[in-house]
Amino acid sequence: MSDMPVLQRVLFSQEQLAHRVAELGREISADYKGKEPLFVGILRGCIMFYADLLRNVSIDCKMDFMCLSSYCGTSSTGEVRTMLDLRESIQGRHVVIVEDIVDTGLTLDYLMQNLKNRGAASIEICCLLDKPCNRKAQVHPKYVGFTVENEFVIGYGLDYNELYRNLPYIGVFKK
Ligand code: IMP
User: Fold this and answer.
1) Ligand 1 and 152: CB distance under 6 A
2) 153 lines ligand 1 (CB under 6 A)
3) Could you tell me if residue 70 is inside a domain?
């Protein structure tokens, strides 16, 4: 249970997150050995996950970030805008998109198309949370930390109106 009034309950503790993120880091390191992948973090929700994941990646890799916007409060507007773009070309690169949560999939659908047009050698998605019940676009993350129900979650980078990203665990938001 939680002592935070905005939380219905804690969903994933710090320990659970650390354990699962380390597993993902090991899995990706094995899959991309010798490929020097580029990890593209989607700001701002990815920040905690990205930093912890990359600490568990043991192969040579590069980092870059994009900032996309489609959300207002607790619902997606469906219209995706690029607020910050990649610094370098991804032509011929193996790209791993690092995202906090896939909900409708509209954001990543847009991003996958966008990055494919730039000539990447491969593109996969690594998301901490997958909320498949809300899917509106065909998006299939290869690496998933946890699957969640149709609940709005906050913490560990995830926000409600830009608040609560700093919580070290993930909880269900009390509306
Ligand atoms: P999608 O385009 O609907 O898949 O939305 C993806 C983005 O919506 C994520 O990167 C989050 O920023 C945001 N989002 C979706 N569900 C939640 C949630 O439960 N809590 C916080 N943010 C969410």
Assistant:
1) yes
2) yes
3) no
**Residue pLDDT, tens place only, 99-136:** 999 999 999 999 999 999 999 999 999 999 999 999 99
Burial (CB count <10 Å: 0-12, 13-18, 19+), residue 70: middle
Residue at 142 is within a domain:
yes
Amino acid identity, position 47: I
- CATH label of the domain that carries residue 30: 3.40.50.2020
Mutational pocket test of ligand 1: of 103, 165, 172, the residue with most ligand atoms within 8 Å of the beta carbon: 103
Percent of the chain past pLDDT 90, that is, above it, reads 89
Q: pLDDT category, 1, cuts 50, 70, 90?
A: very low
Question: Which residue lies with its CA nearest to atom 11 of ligand 1?
Answer: 101
Q: Tokens 């905005």 belong to which residue?
A: 6
